[in-house]
Amino acid sequence: MYRERASRLTGAVVWTNSPSTGGEGRVLPDGCMDLLWHEGRLLVAGPDTHAHLTGDRPGTWAGVRFRPGTAPALLGMPAHELRDRRVALSDLWPAADVRRMTARVNAADDPAHGLEDLALRRAAETPPPDPLLGLLVAALDAGRPVAATADELGLGVRRLHRRSLAAFGYGPKTLARILRMRRALALARAGVPLTETAARTGYADQAHLSREVRDLTGLPPGGLLAAHG
Protein backbone atom coordinates (compact mmCIF):
# COMPACT_ATOMS: atom_id res chain seq x y z
CA MET A 1 0.00 0.00 0.00
CA TYR A 2 1.26 3.44 -0.97
CA ARG A 3 0.73 6.42 1.33
CA GLU A 4 2.07 9.96 1.28
CA ARG A 5 1.77 13.18 3.23
CA ALA A 6 3.16 16.69 3.10
CA SER A 7 6.55 16.99 4.78
CA ARG A 8 7.60 19.52 7.39
CA LEU A 9 10.27 20.42 4.80
CA THR A 10 8.69 23.00 2.52
CA GLY A 11 7.50 21.53 -0.76
CA ALA A 12 8.59 17.97 0.02
CA VAL A 13 6.45 14.85 0.36
CA VAL A 14 7.00 11.92 2.74
CA TRP A 15 5.82 8.55 1.45
CA THR A 16 5.83 4.85 2.25
CA ASN A 17 5.13 1.89 0.02
CA SER A 18 4.61 -1.66 1.30
CA PRO A 19 3.53 -3.90 -1.58
CA SER A 20 1.69 -6.93 -0.25
CA THR A 21 2.75 -9.08 -3.19
CA GLY A 22 5.60 -9.25 -5.63
CA GLY A 23 5.38 -7.74 -9.07
CA GLU A 24 7.23 -5.13 -11.05
CA GLY A 25 6.31 -1.53 -10.29
CA ARG A 26 6.55 1.53 -12.50
CA VAL A 27 7.71 4.89 -11.11
CA LEU A 28 6.82 7.70 -13.49
CA PRO A 29 9.11 10.67 -14.15
CA ASP A 30 8.01 13.74 -12.20
CA GLY A 31 10.95 16.19 -12.15
CA CYS A 32 11.76 15.24 -8.55
CA MET A 33 14.51 13.42 -6.66
CA ASP A 34 14.01 11.22 -3.59
CA LEU A 35 15.92 10.21 -0.48
CA LEU A 36 15.06 6.53 0.06
CA TRP A 37 15.12 3.90 2.80
CA HIS A 38 14.83 0.22 1.93
CA GLU A 39 15.61 -2.76 4.14
CA GLY A 40 17.88 -0.71 6.39
CA ARG A 41 19.77 1.07 3.60
CA LEU A 42 19.75 4.71 2.49
CA LEU A 43 19.67 5.50 -1.23
CA VAL A 44 19.04 8.38 -3.58
CA ALA A 45 16.75 8.28 -6.60
CA GLY A 46 17.97 10.63 -9.29
CA PRO A 47 15.72 12.45 -11.75
CA ASP A 48 14.10 10.12 -14.27
CA THR A 49 13.69 10.76 -17.97
CA HIS A 50 11.51 7.67 -18.38
CA ALA A 51 9.63 5.27 -16.12
CA HIS A 52 11.79 3.45 -13.58
CA LEU A 53 10.87 -0.22 -13.28
CA THR A 54 11.22 -1.55 -9.75
CA GLY A 55 12.13 -5.08 -8.77
CA ASP A 56 9.57 -7.80 -8.20
CA ARG A 57 10.30 -8.48 -4.49
CA PRO A 58 7.83 -7.24 -1.86
CA GLY A 59 9.33 -5.07 0.85
CA THR A 60 8.79 -1.74 2.57
CA TRP A 61 10.14 1.44 1.05
CA ALA A 62 10.08 4.92 2.56
CA GLY A 63 11.10 8.17 0.96
CA VAL A 64 11.23 11.92 1.02
CA ARG A 65 10.43 13.37 -2.41
CA PHE A 66 11.95 16.81 -2.87
CA ARG A 67 10.28 19.38 -5.06
CA PRO A 68 11.98 19.86 -8.45
CA GLY A 69 15.35 21.61 -8.29
CA THR A 70 15.88 21.46 -4.51
CA ALA A 71 17.64 18.11 -3.92
CA PRO A 72 21.03 18.86 -5.58
CA ALA A 73 21.87 21.57 -3.03
CA LEU A 74 21.02 19.20 -0.17
CA LEU A 75 23.05 16.38 -1.68
CA GLY A 76 25.97 18.53 -2.79
CA MET A 77 25.88 17.05 -6.28
CA PRO A 78 24.46 18.28 -9.61
CA ALA A 79 21.32 16.43 -10.63
CA HIS A 80 22.60 15.36 -14.05
CA GLU A 81 25.18 13.09 -12.39
CA LEU A 82 22.30 11.09 -10.90
CA ARG A 83 19.98 11.11 -13.91
CA ASP A 84 18.09 7.80 -14.30
CA ARG A 85 20.06 6.25 -11.42
CA ARG A 86 19.41 4.78 -7.97
CA VAL A 87 22.59 4.97 -5.87
CA ALA A 88 23.58 4.27 -2.28
CA LEU A 89 23.91 7.42 -0.20
CA SER A 90 27.34 6.15 0.85
CA ASP A 91 28.45 6.61 -2.77
CA LEU A 92 27.80 10.35 -2.41
CA TRP A 93 28.71 11.14 1.20
CA PRO A 94 31.45 9.87 3.55
CA ALA A 95 30.72 6.28 4.59
CA ALA A 96 31.14 6.97 8.32
CA ASP A 97 28.58 9.79 8.17
CA VAL A 98 26.13 7.62 6.27
CA ARG A 99 26.51 4.79 8.79
CA ARG A 100 25.52 7.18 11.58
CA MET A 101 22.60 8.52 9.58
CA THR A 102 21.45 5.02 8.69
CA ALA A 103 21.57 3.91 12.33
CA ARG A 104 19.49 6.95 13.32
CA VAL A 105 16.86 6.29 10.65
CA ASN A 106 16.72 2.58 11.49
CA ALA A 107 16.22 3.42 15.17
CA ALA A 108 13.26 5.71 14.45
CA ASP A 109 9.74 4.53 15.22
CA ASP A 110 9.03 4.88 11.50
CA PRO A 111 11.75 5.01 8.81
CA ALA A 112 9.76 7.72 7.01
CA HIS A 113 9.94 9.93 10.09
CA GLY A 114 13.65 9.24 10.40
CA LEU A 115 14.21 10.18 6.76
CA GLU A 116 12.23 13.38 7.19
CA ASP A 117 14.32 14.34 10.22
CA LEU A 118 17.48 13.67 8.22
CA ALA A 119 16.23 15.85 5.37
CA LEU A 120 15.31 18.65 7.78
CA ARG A 121 18.74 18.57 9.42
CA ARG A 122 20.44 18.65 6.03
CA ALA A 123 18.26 21.54 4.86
CA ALA A 124 19.18 23.52 7.99
CA GLU A 125 22.86 23.14 7.07
CA THR A 126 22.57 24.28 3.45
CA PRO A 127 21.56 27.60 1.84
CA PRO A 128 17.88 27.94 0.84
CA PRO A 129 16.91 26.92 -2.71
CA ASP A 130 17.42 29.43 -5.49
CA PRO A 131 13.99 31.11 -5.90
CA LEU A 132 14.58 31.33 -9.63
CA LEU A 133 14.23 27.55 -9.85
CA GLY A 134 10.77 27.69 -8.33
CA LEU A 135 9.77 30.40 -10.80
CA LEU A 136 11.08 28.29 -13.66
CA VAL A 137 9.13 25.19 -12.56
CA ALA A 138 5.95 27.24 -12.09
CA ALA A 139 6.26 28.81 -15.55
CA LEU A 140 6.90 25.52 -17.32
CA ASP A 141 4.16 23.77 -15.35
CA ALA A 142 1.79 26.49 -16.53
CA GLY A 143 2.70 25.66 -20.12
CA ARG A 144 4.93 28.65 -20.82
CA PRO A 145 7.38 28.16 -23.74
CA VAL A 146 11.02 27.65 -22.75
CA ALA A 147 12.36 30.61 -24.74
CA ALA A 148 9.75 32.97 -23.34
CA THR A 149 10.43 31.71 -19.83
CA ALA A 150 14.17 32.30 -20.26
CA ASP A 151 13.47 35.90 -21.31
CA GLU A 152 11.08 36.47 -18.42
CA LEU A 153 13.68 35.20 -15.94
CA GLY A 154 16.44 37.31 -17.47
CA LEU A 155 18.46 34.29 -18.64
CA GLY A 156 19.68 33.28 -22.04
CA VAL A 157 18.48 29.92 -23.34
CA ARG A 158 21.95 28.37 -23.01
CA ARG A 159 22.40 29.61 -19.46
CA LEU A 160 18.95 28.33 -18.56
CA HIS A 161 19.89 24.94 -20.01
CA ARG A 162 23.07 24.74 -17.91
CA ARG A 163 21.25 25.67 -14.74
CA SER A 164 18.51 23.19 -15.51
CA LEU A 165 21.00 20.35 -15.95
CA ALA A 166 22.45 21.02 -12.50
CA ALA A 167 19.08 21.52 -10.81
CA PHE A 168 16.80 19.02 -12.56
CA GLY A 169 19.14 16.61 -14.32
CA TYR A 170 18.05 17.56 -17.82
CA GLY A 171 17.23 20.60 -19.89
CA PRO A 172 14.10 22.76 -19.52
CA LYS A 173 12.44 21.21 -22.58
CA THR A 174 12.58 17.76 -21.01
CA LEU A 175 11.29 19.16 -17.73
CA ALA A 176 8.44 20.86 -19.60
CA ARG A 177 7.54 17.55 -21.33
CA ILE A 178 7.44 15.72 -18.01
CA LEU A 179 5.38 18.39 -16.27
CA ARG A 180 2.91 18.54 -19.17
CA MET A 181 2.52 14.76 -19.10
CA ARG A 182 1.82 14.93 -15.34
CA ARG A 183 -0.88 17.55 -15.94
CA ALA A 184 -2.44 15.43 -18.66
CA LEU A 185 -2.47 12.28 -16.54
CA ALA A 186 -4.08 14.17 -13.66
CA LEU A 187 -6.90 15.29 -15.96
CA ALA A 188 -7.32 11.82 -17.44
CA ARG A 189 -7.49 10.24 -13.98
CA ALA A 190 -10.18 12.78 -13.09
CA GLY A 191 -12.28 11.45 -15.95
CA VAL A 192 -11.55 14.03 -18.65
CA PRO A 193 -11.64 12.33 -22.08
CA LEU A 194 -8.24 11.98 -23.73
CA THR A 195 -9.18 14.17 -26.69
CA GLU A 196 -10.14 17.02 -24.35
CA THR A 197 -7.12 16.32 -22.11
CA ALA A 198 -4.81 16.69 -25.10
CA ALA A 199 -6.38 20.01 -26.08
CA ARG A 200 -6.31 21.41 -22.54
CA THR A 201 -2.65 20.53 -21.97
CA GLY A 202 -1.23 21.79 -25.26
CA TYR A 203 -0.78 18.61 -27.29
CA ALA A 204 -1.53 18.77 -31.00
CA ASP A 205 -4.09 15.98 -30.69
CA GLN A 206 -4.79 12.74 -28.83
CA ALA A 207 -2.24 10.84 -30.92
CA HIS A 208 0.46 13.32 -29.89
CA LEU A 209 -0.51 12.86 -26.24
CA SER A 210 -0.38 9.09 -26.60
CA ARG A 211 3.08 9.18 -28.20
CA GLU A 212 4.46 11.41 -25.46
CA VAL A 213 3.00 9.29 -22.66
CA ARG A 214 4.34 6.09 -24.22
CA ASP A 215 7.77 7.64 -24.74
CA LEU A 216 8.05 8.85 -21.15
CA THR A 217 6.39 5.92 -19.36
CA GLY A 218 6.61 2.90 -21.66
CA LEU A 219 2.82 2.51 -21.78
CA PRO A 220 0.00 4.18 -23.73
CA PRO A 221 -2.39 6.32 -21.69
CA GLY A 222 -5.06 3.64 -21.44
CA GLY A 223 -2.66 0.99 -20.20
CA LEU A 224 -1.00 3.40 -17.82
CA LEU A 225 -4.30 4.53 -16.29
CA ALA A 226 -5.41 0.92 -15.88
CA ALA A 227 -2.14 0.01 -14.18
CA HIS A 228 -1.97 3.03 -11.88
CA GLY A 229 -5.61 3.77 -11.31
UniProtKB/TrEMBL annotation:
Keywords: DNA-binding, Transcription, Transcription regulation. The keyword Transcription applies. It comes from the Bacteria. Pfam families: DUF6597 (PF20240), HTH_18 (PF12833). Residues 130-227 form the HTH araC/xylS-type domain. PANTHER family: BLL1074 PROTEIN, HTH-TYPE TRANSCRIPTIONAL ACTIVATOR RHAS-RELATED. This is Helix-turn-helix transcriptional regulator. It comes from Streptomyces pimonensis.
